[in-house]
Design goal:
This protein is mainly α and about 160 residues long. Helix content is about 70%, strand content about 0%. This is DoxX family protein.
């Protein structure tokens, strides 16, 4: 009993911490920060990979802000225990993409923070794996669909009066 309580508290600390991080970064992107928007001239020979990436993402203000929404909305889902599995699953994909990008373009030490966030989100997903499996693969509606496919039932049945007599 005590062990479950400790694990639940650790999960809560992780989800609230991750929510704070991704609400912050998602908000910055949503309100036009982080990426290079507007007129700029960059030369691959004089700037690093990080500047080129920020300029590329900032080339489209719409895309830059959408990346903020993809961080912000799942982060808000982490705040409720009921929606936490969905938020963790969505943010895991987002965070994995950020981590791969950070390592591919050799971001400074921030890439290790991104890796840490991805690992924590993976642990959150693992901690809720039964709920996720129930919601997407083992739910009653899915079973009903599977059984309906085996024995199709007509949507409308017509009963005819007995004409034998």
């Amino acid at each position: 009993m005590q062990r479950k309580k400790v694990i639940r508290r650790l999960v809560d600390v992780a989800r609230f911490g991750l929510a704070a991080v991704f609400v912050f970064y998602g908000g910055i992107k949503l309100f036009g920060g982080q990426y290079y928007y507007g007129d700029w001239v960059l030369d691959k020979k004089t700037v690093g990979g990080t500047s080129l990436v920020w300029a590329f993402y900032g080339y489209s203000p719409f895309y830059g802000r959408m990346t903020g929404l993809f961080e912000l909305i799942p982060a808000l889902l982490l705040l409720s225990r009921r929606t936490m599995p969905l938020g963790a699953l969505a943010l895991f994909g987002v965070s994995l993409n950020i981590t791969l990008m950070d390592f591919a373009f050799d971001y400074p030490s921030v890439k290790y923070f991104a890796l840490g966030y991805t690992v924590l989100l993976g642990l959150l997903v693992l901690s809720e794996r039964e709920r996720i499996l129930d919601a997407f693969w083992r739910r009653p509606a899915a079973q009903a669909v599977n059984s309906a496919q085996k024995q199709p039932t007509p949507l409308v049945t017509h009963s005819r009066p007995d004409q034998s007599g």
